Amino acid sequence: MSDNATLVRALFTPRAVALIGASADPTKNSGRPQRFLKAHGYTGDVYPINPGRDEVQGVPAFKSVADVPGPVDHAFVMVPAKHVEDAIRDCGAKGVPVATIYSDGFAETGDEGRKMQERLVATARKAGVRLIGPNSMGVIHPASSLTLSVNAVLEMEGIKPGGLSLISQSGTILGTLLSRGAARGIGFARMIGVGNESDLGVGELVDLLVDDPETKAILLFIEAVRDGDVLAAASRRAFAAGKPVIAYKLGRSDAGRELALSHSGAIAGPAKAADAYFKAHAIARVEMLEGLLESPPLFLGHPPAKGKRVAVVTTTGGGAASVADRLGLLGATLVPAPDSVREALRGHGLEIGRGPLVDLTMAGTREGVYGAALEQLLAADEIDAVVTVVGSSGQFKPELAVAPIVEHAAGASKPVAAFIAPQADKSLALLQDAGIANFRTPEACADAVMAFLNRSAPRAIPEVDTYAKEKADGLASRAPAALLNEREASLVFEALGLPIAPAQVIMSPGEPVAVPFPVAVKVLARDIQHKTERGLVRLGIDTPEGVWGAAEQLLAEVPEAEGILVQSMAQGVIGEVIAGYRLDQEAGPIVLVGPGGVMAEVYDDAAVRTAPVDEAEAMAMIQEVKGLAPIRGFRGKPAGDLKALAKAVAAMSNLAVLDTPVLEAEINPLMVRGEGQGVVAVDALLRLKSS
């Protein structure tokens, strides 16, 4: 058996479990797992470990896992934090392959707890024990009645097996989704509370579930991405296997953006970085917790959509309008009834309008009408997804109300979402049993549909220009400090292929000026990055004497300056752009493009991607930024050199592949000239990651 197969068996279908720290009081947290295992019918051996008792809850107890007479596949650890390391050492000696640690008091508590957790992991690795946790709510596998958890949700009778597997960084969410799923007839294949992810993390567990025949879709509740590269690779594997990965992630607010030196750090905060990360690796992101439960049928068996075109078909105008309004707000295009639908409905004596809703009115309740409309909508090439909205008949005549949806949507080539406007549990259950996505609220319905439409295949990773990489790496690695001055940063960008304005450094007034006029004269100091805001730039100087006078003034203002940067001013400019790069703590390297200049942060308008990107992806970024409409030739204005801009953004994104890690970088502004005239960088910021 492979190592992964052994791990999966030990995690989810252990032949025997040890409950280390088991309590004789079944109402205590440490007494619950044993009671839950018995109540739910776990058939493997259960060994309570409690050095102070001979029996626990009527079962013989052992002083240590080492004293257990037979093999143990999985240990559930509930002792105080200071005793956990010894417990794991005993597990290693016993040959226990995996331990789930419920105990808290580790990295989540601060520096001392973090050090204790590091020692625990080192001990576990030496002992050959894989860890879930610490601070884990446990592992649940309904098919084998494994309920290694203290979560009170397991007081419920029976746990429905199903095709959804949940990996959660919150233990409480295990119970939340298990109970809500039970109420909706939704079952789970596997449920894991990862806790602190000291060893086994979200990414590695996703990778294990890709090969699990019970798992059809993988759900993630994420507070922070801690293993970005591993999760990215696993999610790409899941996409190839036809298993959607759907995430609900906390952290939409961008608190802490002010800590970044660059405008880019403020513009592309953690929320946008996370969106870019998920999209790059084909992870669907839902905005509502309920979406984790309700959205999977939209993805199962359906490839990514070609567009964001949605048809909303209904017999109740108000209910449909509530979904349509939300869809429009989220960026969907509402498609009126195609001619094929109108023709089919004429055959039933019904003439409908050309509005954004396919409103069948009460005539849609007549036999054959709803089904005829739905059949044609699902066949129409100009539609990517269909939303069906059911009115009061869903409550009082559920079989009649949802029958045409079940008949035509089950197994359809494109996804169907059904919103039931009234409280209609039976209609929802009929749809759930048929494998059709069903929703109780218009907001949840729209959110789930948009999560499907926004998901695309994993983005290809572009090839690296080895020569440019080595040249830029050499310059970056020789920088005298982590924060480069403008000239040093410019040379790194130039090595990557970005056009840089001609410039020179002078140390004192009187030195010859060797760059074309007119010029800008700036203080050169690595600790002063945004010089314009501090009045340390002089523009439009067209004589050597003017340069020397400006240099004298600036050196008087900043005597500690490293020199004076004299830079040719770009001519023929029709627009200013910001191109930025940042090493995000969770998403990894990201690149952005948006409107540049002093207003870069004001409009919060930028396209963000994980880096690197190729020129085609960079062009797509340029096209999606509203504030760049002027350089796209808006309303007859002269268009900028978008090809050159895309090439520059792609070149900057290659900071991601340097061996010398770059923390953040920015060109603001990157001057865009007319078509065929290129772009030129006239400012540069680059900060390396400190060793």
Description:
- The strands form six sheets. Strands 9-8-11-10-12-13-14 form a seven-stranded mixed beta sheet, with helices on both faces. Strands 15, 16, 17, 18, 19 and 20 form a six-stranded parallel beta sheet that branches. Strands 25, 26, 27, 28, 29 and 30 form a six-stranded antiparallel beta sheet that branches.
- The longest helix has 17 residues, at 111-127.
- Helix 13 runs antiparallel to helix 14 (369-379) and helix 22 (615-624) packs across helix 23 (642-653).
- Mean pLDDT is 93; it is low at 256-261.
- The chain is built from 23 helices and 30 strands.
- Helix 2 (32-39) links the parallel strand 1 and strand 2.
- The two termini are 41 Å apart.
- It has 691 residues and is an alpha/beta fold.
- The chain has four domains: 1-155, NAD(P)-binding Rossmann-like Domain (Rossmann fold, 3-Layer(aba) Sandwich); 305-454, Rossmann fold; 466-472 and 482-568, ATP-grasp fold, A domain (Dna Ligase, domain 1), CATH 3.30.1490.20; 573-688, D-amino Acid Aminotransferase, Chain A, domain 1 (2-Layer Sandwich), CATH 3.30.470.
- 35% of the residues lie in helices and 22% in strands.
Quick take:
The chain is α/β, with parallel strands linked by helices and 691 residues long. It has 23 helices and 30 strands. Strand 15 (309-314), helix 12 (317-330) and strand 16 (333-334) form a beta-alpha-beta unit.
